[in-house]
């Protein structure tokens, strides 16, 4: 049986080759003018000391719980940079006391009843892929203990309605399993976040996940028809409808709730027929403003490409999709019903009108896997594994994402890149290059996604990352963007970010709603808001 890494992304047998590791050493040495690059060793679980569990499960539920050391390590953190850094350094001061593996909604109800009655915090856990502190089990001293509630056993497709093209699906199903089962019916959900392999439907809904589809079908919001959520106060279930004007949406309230209200156990999801027609092409631009204008016009054209990503020249270079002299617009179209070549050709006309240059690729069902588009795709998938190796050397390779309306877009991107670079240089004493790609496009705006590298050492990297994160949170907010477009809020995006972005009256509404659904404040404390009457210290501050 393959084991998930407790210190990084993927399985413990998925390691970079010696040559890949040497290539990273050379890149770091060149970037930061170093004579030598040292990497800390991959940790051994046997060498890590963790506190004894503070609580024991009741006899009636003991078959649902474990205090296994590996499970406690794996459920302590998500997969952000500081999560990996702390894990590699063997820092586990607040692991979950117990991990629960319920098999049904009734068992979830029983677990929440016991936890509420005994002042025990509950951290919902899908695939553990959070990159913003969403599943962290350090909740301070306000609770007698903390459990991580893992949904992996509640993972079935309950029903498929081919007439409505929907399916009722349990929240613990992983992305690959979901798509494999839908494929048997020639259906797909087409929701592919970067975390796809190790994330769940319930996690996507709870965090308002953004998928790989760059226009039209982007956020998980677009796919949710109805849902069920088990709360400490009872069952929260919405009606299955294609649309409704009956007051504020109860679905929208649960989507993005990040586990602070309850456990999303099931949802009816809108599906699509599997695509069979694909067309793609990459366009080069010498001028970034021209590329941004082309992107806007395509986004407002009603053509709705499946892939419509703009890489600045340095982003393209670092992902092996260009030579660093051109900005790249990656375009792709797909359909289950008809050939999309005409849509691609119209998009290319728009690009050409804005000084874009391209060599059209032959029509092919796997066109999205070739050329610059394919190189970018492969780099996108490989990125989490590469980041782990940088982290072992104390080098911070990280990202942050936001969104902004078209009227502010160019200035916003320029300001965020410049301000972030200055902040990192001030914090680390060394220069930093900040790159940008546009991951999602809307008729009214875009989602810029920034990547940066920062010099640190294994002993300083956590504190340096904190300072950089607080700075980038503030930079996004002060420039009128959002602190996150699709990575969720968790704990890491609250200080200098969500706590400032969230309207004060809405904050009061959210606190009141949580008090109704979770009277004892046990559900994922410190995420989004602090429970009423509880003082949850954010680890970053």
Topology:
Layout: H1 18-32, E1 65-66, H2 69-74, H3 81-88, E2 98-100, H4 105-117, E3 120-125, E4 145-150, E5 157-161, E6 166-170, H5 175-183, E7 187-188, H6 201-206, E8 224-231, E9 234-237, H7 250-254, E10 263-270, E11 272-273, E12 277-285, H8 288-299, E13 307-311, H9 313-318, E14 327-335, H10 341-353, E15 357-358, H11 371-392, E16 396-401, E17 404-405, H12 409-428, E18 434-442, E19 445-454, H13 461-478, H14 494-501, H15 504-517
Helix pairs in contact: 3-11, 3-13, 8-10, 12-13, 13-14
Give the CA-CA distance, first to last residue: 39 Å
- The proportion of residues forming helix, as a percent range, comes to 25-40%
How can the largest sheet be summarized?
8 strands, antiparallel
Q: Helix count, per DSSP?
A: 15
Q: What sort of overall outline do the alpha carbons produce when their principal axes are compared?
A: globular
Structural class: alpha+beta
Count of beta strands: 19
The CATH class name of the domain at 277-494 reads Alpha Beta
At CATH level 3, the topology of the domain at 277-494 is: Vanillyl-alcohol Oxidase, Chain A, domain 3
- Proportion of strand residues: 15-25%
Mean pLDDT rating: 94
Q: Which regions are unreliable across 5 or more consecutive residues at pLDDT < 50? A: none
Name of the CATH homologous superfamily of the domain at 277-494: FAD-linked oxidase, cap domain/gating helix
CA radius of gyration: 23 Å
